[in-house]
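In response to reviewer comment 3 from the previous cycle, which asked for concrete evidence that the modeling workflow produces usable outputs, we include below a single protein chain processed end to end. The sequence was submitted unchanged, and the resulting structure tokens are shown without manual editing.
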Amino acid sequence: MKRPFHRVLAGVAMVTGVALALSSCGFGPKNAADSDTTINFLAPVYSDGATGTKALWEGIVAEFEKQNPGISVTVQMESWNSINDVVRTKLQSQSTTPDILNIDAYAGFASDGLLYPATEIVSAPVLADIQPVFAQNAALNGTQYALPLFASTRTLFYNTELFERAGIARPPKNWAELTDAAKKIQALGGGVSGYGLPLGSEEAQGETSIWTFGAGGSWADGDRITVDTPQNLEGVRAMRDLIDAGATQPNPGATDRKDVINAFIQGKIGMIEGLPPTIAQILAKNPGLRYATAPSPTKTGSPVTLGVADHLMAFKKDGAKAESIKKFLDYFYSAAVYANFVQHEGFIPITHSAATALAEDPVTKAFAATLPVARFYPSNNPKWAAAQGAIRQQMGTIGQGADPAQVLRRIQEAAN
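The workflow returned the following structure tokens.
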């Protein structure tokens, strides 16, 4: 099963303030099994089965060790349900701290001085190959500490059969066109909804961000969380207008993302903001669905979208493993190796070379153009967790008559 991108619990990073005392758990004390040429790698499971994440890493490690006989890599796989607790435990001792960690949050580790700068763990050509917007999102105070693993962005999925029936010639580029198209599809009847607007508690911040970013808004300005702004209000009001026009599914405030994706796959919704795994879900559940993708509509039609990335990071500890880590990560990010990994996991490559190699892959075709215009949650800001939680709790109330301006004020108060 594919794991959707999550936000890691803030407590994972907080344990880095604890003194790294000796411990007998985890990878164990430094000995022949943990020499300067032994890399301990902690990674989550994104997909199961014979060709899933575990098998992919095992194949990568086997070939790397064959080409680099003096270096060994030990991979420990954990589920996303348990990896946060495992990280908390391991970081309490230098002997059990992994050399490489695959997770999303890196800023707390970087600010505590625990990570190598990216320039010390991959070569310059690898750094130059990473899409700039994702490299910037992996940096803290101007220094890149993490390496994006792969990306998830959003793009508009639309049902071409419903478009034809409603007389819509092309996908909408701006909100006015989106509302017009959604109303025409809604008028077809038969239980069909124009636009799937998921403002339930699962991920209201995701859908909301697409609209606020589309109005030129943002959730942060420097170290300040900025929820209650004119631009964000314009985006939330646009969602409310779509609801008031009767052009969405019933009760958007109680609808989660998975609900609108499933309804779209069943042919019951004309348009949704989908993710890379949506393509595989359609293929598995309704391969005959007639659909296409287009850039997310915005206020002016200028493309922008929500981006999320998980990361690789390396703990420097005594600094002795930098050379071994660099060889392994350079190998992993080589075009053929990295492209194969991303393709099997069903996400978007974040390197130029892999995007070229996967140019004909359905996911890359649909989503590669979204990478340069992706914008991110301010996950490096410690107050974002409170703001995000408040968005999940509050945003759905606009579908029940709540004033968008009041909703944003309440969310801002929760973040202050």
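The two ends are 37 Å apart (CA to CA). We consider this sufficient to address the reviewer's concern, and the full set will be provided in the supplementary archive.
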